[in-house]
Amino acid sequence: MEALTADLSDVVGELPRRLLVAGGAGFIGSAFVRLLLAAEGAPQITVLDKLTYAGNLRNLEEVEAHPSFRFVKGDICDLELADKLARECDCIVNFAAESHVDRSILDPDAFIRTDVYGTYSLLEAARRHHHQRFLQVSTDEVYGDVEAPHLSVESDPARPRSPYSASKAGAELQCFAYHATYGLPVLVTRGSNTYGPFQYPEKIVPLFITQALDGGPLPVYGDGGAVRDYLYVDDHALGIALVLARGTAGSAYNLGQGDPPLDGMTVARSVLQLVGRGEELIQHVADRPGHDRRYALDSAQARALGWLPLLDFERGMGRTVDWYQRRRDWWEPIKSGEFLEFYRRNYRPLEGAGTGS
Ligand code: NAD
Ligand code: TYD
After folding, report:
1. Among 111, 160, 146, 177, which Cα is nearest to 298's?
2. Tens of pLDDT along 97-143?
3. What's the angle, vertex CA 194, arms to CA 209 and CA 160, rounded to 5?
4. In 3D, which of 226, 147, 155 has the Cα closest to residue 190?
5. Of 47, 103, 211, 274, which one has the greatest count of Cβ atoms within 10 A?
6. Which ligand has the shortest distance to the CA of 202?
7. What's the pTM?
8. Which of 95, 122, 230, 292 most suits a substitution to test ligand 1, by most atoms within 8 Å of the C-beta?
9. Distance (Å) from CA 89 to ligand 1 centroid
């Protein structure tokens, strides 16, 4: 964190001074807020967040007393609220989204509402108040399934294949339309699979870590051969800050860690090794419908702005496992109630075998 903050101090002076951070109580948004507020000369930050199942004010405890921080509970789809807050700011960074592919397969509705309509609502507010910048936090999943050895570049077409990635691609298209039509200075980042502290334990890394810590099953979809580029959360947050400060309006920027992507079995084995458990905990379950087999990014454009991820997977996972070991107080309450219901709905046995959930 210290090293990242030192890097960030170079760019913090280039940022707009009053940021509206939508979705700032979630995993990556809260890391972005903590990172900026730890830097000297930090901008004023208003977090707007609905506090869905994935939002958590505990993610912001570290900064709640900071004089440049304020929190507003609300929905980005609320046009009036978005307008009111945009009037008091000069830039929006939009992290707010329904963000989990598996939930989008079970219930797409909230994804269309928040990710598409909600982004429109914020764009409209930014346009009306002549904002200096609008940064849309998007995802490498908009490229869809990418065949090896290709690395996606920003000019590649969007071929989303899940309700989640389709809603994110729709939001991006609105952003580019606002740039072309109204001249709104829009930036889009396409980050890869992100992991680290404070991640709701439904995505692969925190799910597998918390399962392993409790001696429970690690549910690997299908053969566990689908690969992803895994990026440590502080590196992702720093990349977003750099694009916000230095990006060219109307452009998209890939943010990927850059090492060869890793498959699900490799992630599972890494977790088990770090937690000190055996491979008998790995349980193959029915594959995700429409499962994209591979995402991989070329991030040369963001590198040219001065972005370099600091942590490789081994070091990032070391830090992450250490955090989940220390912060049972954060994740144990989450892994009951709503989470258990989702888990029961989502995981199905592989060819009739039990999932052990
Ligand atoms: P998250 O699910 O942890 O956080 C999303 C936040 O948005 C939560 O705090 C939630 O309460 C809030 N939110 C949801 N609907 C809202 C609404 N209608 N109004 C206001 N707030 C609302 O997600 P994350 O993993 O931190 O992802 C943040 C962004 O980054 C998302 O846009 C996601 O698509 C993108 N992204 C995520 C990853 C990843 O691996 N997690 C990778 C690339 C891009
Ligand atoms: P996930 O963390 O859900 O991110 P995304 O679907 O956005 O890439 O999944 C990452 C990879 O891990 C993906 O190939 C699906 C796989 N996976 C499992 O094998 N088991 C699981 O329980 C989960 C959540 C994911």
Report:
1. 146
2. 999 999 999 999 999 999 999 999 999 999 999 999 999 999 999 99
3. 120
4. 155
5. 47
6. 2
7. 0.97
8. 95
9. 21
